[in-house]
Amino acid sequence: MAKTFYWYPKCGTCRNAKKWLDQHEVAYNEVHIVENPPSRSELEEMLNKSGLDLKKFFNTSGQKYRELGLKDKVKSASHDELLEVLASDGMLIKRPLMTDGERVTVGFKEEDYEKAWL
Cβ of 94: how many Cβ atoms within 10 Å? Predict the structure, then answer.
């Protein structure tokens, strides 16, 4: 399956990840995470494949996260409630988010990208 790179062009971390992918000639499909966020079912599938905690998928440093008071909500909300909230707005999702259908990376760390995408 082709790699899908969910990103927000104004995000510096996303631009760094994109630059890294291009420098390493990694082929991917680019998706604007705010205009075309992954669906709830896509997020759930990525979550299951990633082995990460659902909280790792939230952009905790984002303005929207703070506006919605999610810091406290993520502690008590159910798994389903959190997935619904996450799927409701691409700005709530930690980015960049990349998947090939089997592997998933959330955020950008060179060493994680080297392991997953080279």
Answer: 22
Distance CA 107, CA 98 (A): 9
Q: Low-confidence residues of the chain, pLDDT below 50?
A: none
**Mean pLDDT score of the chain:** 95
For residue 17, give the amino acid letter. A
CA distance 66 to 60: 8
Residues in the chain: 118
Question: What is the pLDDT, as a whole number, of residue 52?
Answer: 95
* pLDDT of res. 83: 95
User: Distance (Å, rounded) from C-alpha 31 to C-alpha 38?
Assistant: 9
- What are the distances in angstroms from CA 14 to CA 18, 21, 32, 71, 107? 6, 10, 11, 23, 8
Q: In 3-state terms, what secondary structure has residue 99?
A: strand
CA distances from 13 to 34, 60, 66, 67 (A): 15, 14, 19, 22
Contact 85, 73 (CB under 8 A): yes
